[in-house]
Fold Mediator of RNA polymerase II transcription subunit 22.
Amino acid sequence: MNKGGGSGGGSGGGSGPTAAAAAAALQKQKALLQRVETDITSVVDNFTQIVYVSRVSDPPVKNSQETYMMEMRASRMVQAADSLLKLVSELKQTAIFSGFASLNDHVEQRIEEFDQEAEKTNRLLARIADDASANLKELESHYYSSAQRLTLDI
């Protein structure tokens, strides 16, 4: 989930949108790791309790209590597993959108490069047009002052 990059341009230290995005990404990463830890701990603890409670005992009342405990623990395991699946889905979406964000950044960078190249080409064309205009004026002045033009007009 690294959202850092070389698009800050300058030595601003810890300011700007890049630093804010990095801080938000770090905070989100910590929250996701906490969720993973909590959900995995819940699955393991509930499974351990199911195994512990699953021993068979003689009194029927105790068996029904243990059955209820096993069902409750199994339900909690399912909730924790569902939470982990949602987390995986969220991570996939983050990866996809992060890919789109980096792709957008790349496209914007290429657009900027092409704009600069277009500016450079326009300046070159303007310089060529100025040179051509100057050369044409020089040729016209030579033509109008030449002896051959004077002989053709008569």
In short: The first helix runs from residue 17 to 53. Residues 1-14 have pLDDT under 50 and may be disordered. The radius of gyration is 38 Å.
